[in-house]
Amino acid sequence: MYIKSLIAVFLASILTENYVLNKFLGICPFLGVSKKLNTALGMSLSVTFVMILATATTWPIYTYILKPNDLAYLQTIVFILVIAALVQLVETILKKYIPPLYNSLGIYLPLITTNCAVLGVTMLVIEKGAIDLSFGYVQSLTNAFGAGIGFLVAMVLFAGVRQRIEKCDIPKFMQGLPITLVAASLVAVSFLGFQGLVEGLLG
Amino acid sequence: MEKTSFKLEFTKGIIKENPVLRLVLGTCPTLAITTAASNAIGMGIAATLVLICSNAAISLLRKVIPDKVRIPAYITIIAGFVSVVQMLVKAFTPEIDKTLGIYLPLIVVNCIILGRAEMYANKHTVLPSIVDGLGMGVGFTAALLSMGIIRELLGSGTILGIPILTNLIDPVIIFILPPGGFFVFGMLIAIANKLSDKPAKKAELGCSSCPLGKNCTSISKKEEA
Fold it and tell me: What is the pTM assigned to this prediction?
């Protein structure tokens, strides 16, 4: 039963609550670094990694430090600083100890500090936990992992779509961003089809 | 002389350098909360307040903040003002707080605010920075409002809750769902491109004005190499 609820959280955060296509978080990297498949992959793997790490750090800070001391209003400022420090730390560690990984993923890290998907996931799991008391630390981490994978799925799918658009003859004023957004809209339509799927699958 | 330049600083944010439609910054809230015109106004005012305050503070501190740590310093200042606005909204208009939800604290990572700090406030004195923040805020609100009106009118047949099209056509619900957001935004940028007299500038993401744009460009350069 416990495992089942975790799977439900995981699948829901990939399909029905997709951070990019459903919640509009992390649109900048979604549109900016999705031109090529391998860049899209590198970026989303770094985002997933930071999302899990950030949730793993901010959840205990909020639950055990901020909330018992009536400091919940400091959430925004504390979370963004923790994420910024964390990203910097990861970058330094990777650069020093795992240079190959730094060369492939490290370049994306500075972009992630101001990625709203990362701050978004840390805040949304706290919000979910306030509504549903059974939504604890493990569920939050699962949600963060699912959100990252959902970001990866959306990025990879969209990179494929964009590679096809490049070969098309597009009216001049639609070139560039407008046609990309229309394509994103169609990808989002396909994700609407997942509505209710998770409940049907596991409910 | 002084007055005209202030006027210029103010109006450039609304039309020529509209943060949303021309510079393509702050796309996340633009897409997420424009399902109704009233949300757009709430978000616009909240972001404008933060923008004016952070521009003023950063402009005042521009000689104190060391260049190397400026981005973290800016984020801290912005986060402080966002918390203030968040508390104000919660206290005075709880219903707006509910509809904006998570997107209200996410003003912290809205690249318009960090972008203006980096591009304008750290190079100019306090008064022009405030005017710049006000202009950009009004431009942001106007773009959000136009998107909110289009999506609300087509998606639920109302504007600000007043029924307009409800008896004429059936609401096209997809416009208030996520795909409609992407579509309307794409169309608005296409129209802005068509109308602007300089067609040569290909609309790409606002990387040139994004404070972290350099990193993105270095990634794509690395890919090509």
Answer: 0.84
Query: Which amino acid is residue A20, in one-letter code?
Result: V
What angle do helix axes A116-131 and A75-97 make, rounded to 10 degrees?
130
For A161-188, the pLDDT digits (tens) are 888 888 888 888 788 888 888 999 999 8
- Tokens at A15, concatenated: 């399909």
How large is the ipTM?
Answer: 0.84
Please report the number of interchain residue pairs, chain A to chain B, with beta-carbon separation below 8 angstroms.
150
Residue A119, classified by CB atoms within 10 Å of its CB into exposed (0-12), middle (13-18) or buried (19+), is buried
Residue with tokens 């989002």: A188
8 Å CB contact of A114 and B190: no
Spell out the domain ranges in chain B. Answer: 2-215
Residue B53 has a pLDDT of 94
Please list, in sequence order, all residues whose beta carbon lies within 8 angstroms of the beta carbon of residue A193, skipping any fewer than 6 positions away.
none
Contact call for residues A151 and A19 (beta carbons, < 8 A): yes
CA distance B101 to B216: 29
Tell me the pLDDT of chain A averaged across its residues: 85
Secondary structure of chain B: what % helix, strand, coil (to 5)? 70, 0, 25
Q: Phi and psi at residue A177, in whole multiples of 5°?
A: -65, -45
Average pLDDT on B37-66 reads 91
Nearest partner of B41 among B157, B153, B159, judged by Cα: B159
Q: Calculate how close chain B gets to A100, using CA atoms only, in Å.
A: 15
pLDDT at site B1:
38
Q: Which of residues 46-105 of A touch B (CB under 8 A)?
A: 73-77, 80-81, 84
pLDDT at residue B121 in the model: 86
